[in-house]
Amino acid sequence: MFTIRFIPFALCVAVFTIALVLNDAEANPQIDLLGGYDIIGVCINNCAQCKKMFGEFFEGHLCAEACIQFKGKMVPDCEDINSIAPFLNKLN
Fold first, then answer.
1. Closest CA relative to residue 75, chosen from 51, 49, 40, 50
2. Is 0.90 topped by the overall pTM?
């Protein structure tokens, strides 16, 4: 009799645990399943930060495309002109 009452409780705990784990994965996309950083996500976030800093002078979409194309191997640093030079434009 005790096990029949325990089954719905155990089922609720299992569903809650699965929902909590899935929600945590969506809330923090920078961390991959192995505990390391998602380099492409970091790269795209840096592109967005540079776009906020430089506005119209920074081609954010080209930066994000480069992150995907090179699989995050070239992460832009907004304070390093050499890493963001390909994405800067001149406005006349």
1. 40
2. no
**Per-residue buried b or exposed e for 63-77, using 16+ beta carbons within 10 Å of the residue's own CB:** bbebbeeeebeebbe
Per-residue pLDDT of the chain (92 residues; tens, 9 = 90+): 556 666 766 666 555 656 555 555 444 455 555 566 788 999 999 999 999 999 999 999 999 999 999 988 889 999 999 999 999 998 76
Question: Which residues, 6+ apart, have CB-to-CB distance to 15 below 8 Å?
Answer: none
From residue 25, give the alpha-carbon distance in Å to each of 18, 20, 39, 44: 11, 9, 16, 18
Q: Could you tell me which residues are beta bridge partners of residue 58?
A: 88
Amino acid, res. 33:
L
Place of tokens 């992460």: 75
